[in-house]
Write a structure and sequence with these properties.
This protein is of the alpha+beta class. The protein is built from 8 helices and 11 strands. The two termini are about 15 Å apart.
């Protein structure tokens, strides 16, 4: 416990020191920006630590009052009540401080690129992919985020073969990153006359959106092909070779973009997706190295793993990583109750990180 106390004192000292430097004035603009950012990050932690220290001090005072109460029943009762309240409050505040002290995922505040693809199950898988994408669109609305489609490939019956979109807003990646993986659906398709339940799947990938400065791509590592864009059923979207296929030769990653009528715009959008995928590749490699010691699917973003099942006949959603089942399928698909699943995943991820710190 002494090391925990030392950590808290160190954070408070750091917070006070940065506050003093900023108050005295910083000549170097880059140093001012760095200190301001660090101060903003430390502020909520320092406030939580102060609340904890105040509660601990009040608890010690109440225990002292109880010891000195003697035969005074009123003072004794008052002290006991206060001790009871504070003994519940202190562990809660300790937990809050521990969570705030956890190492931050540097990508949490980034925007995200969302990719949804139909998996096994033919037309039904494509319809489910469309349902999933609508769920994320509605969820983005509830969070006050902006969603913009980059590329979309529809089927003739209203399904989606694949779609990619950017999601912009506050803390997008921190909430969306747990959605990467295989999503499975169990339901009776509209096309099924005998009422049999079918199982199909869609794959979701959530990538942190990155800037050019975050990841450098050499021109010599790219092969860019242009071709004529086509819509569902082979109909021509336009009559020029505006669609772009970008191949990153070292990794073999391929990005196709045909949503815009301009070749230049398609290339720009394609490069945005390629940068995100390359960055995500690096991120997954680092994550795999970190996760060697702890067998955890949470946060690993392993897209080969089945992470969630949507069972329509029973009206339930089950997240297999944390064995959470909600009988709120309609609310989840409407984007309203998805936050309940996401918050449970975040809490589990934090618990695992806390446990690994204590090892």
């Amino acid at each position: 416990m002494s090391s925990f106390k030392e950590t808290l004192d160190k954070v408070l000292h750091q917070h006070t020191d940065i506050s003093r430097q900023l108050a005295e004035g910083v000549d170097d603009s880059k140093e001012f920006v760095r200190l301001s950012k660090e101060y903003a990050e430390l502020e909520p932690v320092a406030e939580a630590i102060q609340s904890l220290k105040t509660a601990q001090s009040e608890l010690a005072g109440a225990e002292e009052m109880l010891a000195e109460a003697g035969d005074d029943p009123e003072m004794k009762d008052m002290a006991e009540q206060e001790i009871l309240t504070l003994k519940k409050l202190v562990p809660d505040l300790e937990h809050k401080v521990q969570i705030l002290l956890l190492p931050k995922d540097e990508d949490d505040e980034r925007n995200a690129i969302l990719e949804v693809r139909a998996g096994t199950g033919g037309d039904e898988a494509a319809l489910f992919a469309a349902d999933l994408f609508r769920m994320y669109q509605r969820f983005a609305e509830t969070q006050g985020w902006k969603i913009e489609i980059l590329d979309i490939n529809n089927t003739d019956i209203g399904g989606l073969k694949e779609v990619s979109a950017t999601i912009s807003g506050k803390g997008v990646f921190s909430k969306m990153k747990f959605e990467s993986g295989v999503h499975r659906v169990q339901r009776v398709p509209d096309t099924e006359s005998s009422g049999r339940i079918h199982t199909s799947a869609a794959t979701v990938a959530v990538l942190p959106e990155v800037e050019e400065v975050d990841i450098q791509i050499e021109d010599k590592d790219l092969r860019i092909d242009v071709f004529r864009a086509s819509g569902p059923g082979g109909q021509s979207v336009n009559t020029t070779d505006s669609a772009v296929r970008i191949t990153h030769i070292p990794t073999g990653l391929v990005v196709s973009q045909q949503d815009e009528k301009s070749q230049h715009k398609n290339k720009a959008k394609g490069m945005k997706v390629l940068r995100a995928r390359l960055y995500d590749l690096e991120r997954q490699q680092k994550e795999a190295e970190r996760a060697k010691d702890r067998q955890s699917q949470i946060g690993s973003g392993d897209r080969s793993e089945r992470i969630r099942t949507y069972n329509f006949p029973q009206g339930r959603v089950t997240d297999h990583r944390i064995n959470l089942t909600l009988y709120k399928l309609d609310q989840v698909m409407a984007g309203e109750a998805l936050i309940e699943v996401i918050e449970a995943l975040i809490a589990e991820d934090q618990a695992e990180k806390l446990a690994s710190l204590g090892q």
